[in-house]
């Protein structure tokens, strides 16, 4: 596999849309003579465009409606389908061959490398598997981005193939062309091909490459469901299906970069850690009502990742369902009571309880300040705010976010309330403002405002109290504190 020829197929309206991807793939390839390109276009390239395309070596094109494996394939052992928004990194082809060789040596006879590349400028620079967000009784599956696959030692088993980023033996694509069932995932599963998410960073994408929803054929539903953790009768999803991580504990063997350990034990890092630790007191709430979408498996692994962070004073409130489990992972666990939350003159009903819990976050911080006095800043962090395994040697950068203002991230102009950092002197006034807005001093008010609307009003009425930091995606503020990122496909998982 180390010298197998690769045919890269790109699909676009016009050839001009593929030029950036062609340039990065050709320039980054170590074995350019073992690489050829095939374009599936809606428009026939003009002579000037054909001259531009000739710079990329062996390249062919066809228009929509033909059969790619007949028109474009010239005997290459591997076919790589990529969307025109993908940008390849240096030595990507050597990394692909290396990963396929790893899978072959592990006994995977028909390996497929596929997944969602990280977005350009995204919070986490790692591939993600495809997670399943819903499964209909008719077998219809819809998808979301799964857990970012950081610091893996080898490719991770996956359930779903991504047509916009997939490398496999050419036989798979020829079968898919012949069977015409519409879904590359179904073709791969039906014919014994095993999908895996790349652990080496070989590309990024300028758009989301999530596969379109598809319907599992009746003859494949039960077998696919049992293999990948979904109930095809009632649509129930396991944590494995939702995260795309098909291991019992939703984790994988990690390889820690050698340089991270050096950074942690450098004099500068030790000094920063010692000073930061006195600043922050982090509070979270592990509750099935607070995060009804998370399965118990997801809640457990998420809290374990948060609790494992170095140099954080963490206090976890939890209901009776999780209290014993949480105490196995962290010593500072208290049973949650409704009187710790926002003061109201009525007990919220089921429809309002989720809103009540979300609005209660600053009041839980005030409770934490009573239990752990002396901290300059209190931080609310959602229990799933570290949806990836943080480097065990990472010392979070807290000092940069400890200012005299309340710090919140924003995604596309919308507040990301998964992490809120509040200076202790502002906490009491903030709680008072929330009480006034919610009307908790009046027994006539029985409707709590949505959390997003309340915080938006607070930031607009008191702009001098807030610092809003734009981040690429949800949990981006926490990712910034952890410095998540991997710049090189070979060095990121190497001890050299």
Structural account:
This protein has 496 residues and is α/β, with parallel strands linked by helices. Helices cover 32% and strands 20% of the residues. The chain is built from 17 helices and 20 strands. Strands 3-2-1-4-10-6-11-9 form an 8-stranded mixed β-sheet, with helices on both faces. The longest helix has 15 residues, at 424-438. The protein is elongated.
What spatial order of strands do you see in the largest sheet?
Answer: 3-2-1-4-10-6-11-9
Distance between the termini: 24 Å
Structural class, judged by helices and strands?
alpha/beta
Mean pLDDT: 84
Radius of gyration: 25 Å
Low-confidence segments: 261-277, 485-496
What global shape is seen? elongated
Number of strands: 20
- The number of helical segments is 17
């Amino acid at each position: 596999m180390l010298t197998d020829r690769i045919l890269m197929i790109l699909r676009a309206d016009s050839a001009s849309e593929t030029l950036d991807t062609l340039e990065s793939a050709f320039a980054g390839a170590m074995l350019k003579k073992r690489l050829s390109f095939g374009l599936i276009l809606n428009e026939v390239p003009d002579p000037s465009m054909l001259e531009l395309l000739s710079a990329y070596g062996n390249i062919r094109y066809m228009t929509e409606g033909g059969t790619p494996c007949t028109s474009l394939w010239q005997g290459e052992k591997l076919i790589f389908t990529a969307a025109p928004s993908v940008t390849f990194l240096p030595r990507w082809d050597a990394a692909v061959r290396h990963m396929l060789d790893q899978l072959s040596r592990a006994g995977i006879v028909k390996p497929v490398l596929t997944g969602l590349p990280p977005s350009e400028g995204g919070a986490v620079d790692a591939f993600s598997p495809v997670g399943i967000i819903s499964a209909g009784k008719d077998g219809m599956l819809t998808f979301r981005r799964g857990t970012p696959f950081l610091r893996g030692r080898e490719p991770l088993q996956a359930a779903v193939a991504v047509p916009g980023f997939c490398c496999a033996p050419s036989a798979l694509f020829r079968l898919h062309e012949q069977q015409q069932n519409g879904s590359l995932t179904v073709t791969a599963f039906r014919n014994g091909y095993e999908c895996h998410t790349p652990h080496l960073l070989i590309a990024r994408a300028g758009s989301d490459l999530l596969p379109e929803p598809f319907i599992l054929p009746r003859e494949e539903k039960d077998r696919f469901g049992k293999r990948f953790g979904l109930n095809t009768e009632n649509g129930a999803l396991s944590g494995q299906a939702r995260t795309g991580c098909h291991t019992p504990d939703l984790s994988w063997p990690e390889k820690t970069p050698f340089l991270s350990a050096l950074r942690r034990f450098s004099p500068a890092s030790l000094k920063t850690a010692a000073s930061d630790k006195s600043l922050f007191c982090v509070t979270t709430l592990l509750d099935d009502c607070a995060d009804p979408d998370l399965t118990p498996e997801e809640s457990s692994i998420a809290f374990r990742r948060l609790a494992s962070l170095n140099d954080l004073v963490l206090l976890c409130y939890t209901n009776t369902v999780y209290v014993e489990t949480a105490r196995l992972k962290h010593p500072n666990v208290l049973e949650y009571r409704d009187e710790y939350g926002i003061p109201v003159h009525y007990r919220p009903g089921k429809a309002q309880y989720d809103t009540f819990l979300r609005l209660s976050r600053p009041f839980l911080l005030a409770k934490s300040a009573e239990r752990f006095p002396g901290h300059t800043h209190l931080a609310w962090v959602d229990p799933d705010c570290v949806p990836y395994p943080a480097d065990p040697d990472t010392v979070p950068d807290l000092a940069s976010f400890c200012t005299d203002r309340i710090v919140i991230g924003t995604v596309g102009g919308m507040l990301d309330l998964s992490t809120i950092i509040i200076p202790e002197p502002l906490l009491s006034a903030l709680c008072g403002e929330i009480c006034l807005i919610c009307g908790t001093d009046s027994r006539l008010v029985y409707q709590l405002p949505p959390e997003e609307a309340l915080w938006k009003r607070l930031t607009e009425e008191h702009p001098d109290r807030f610092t809003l930091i734009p981040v690429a995606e949800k949990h981006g503020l926490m990712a910034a504190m952890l410095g998540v990122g991997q710049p090189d496909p070979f060095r990121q998982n190497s001890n050299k």
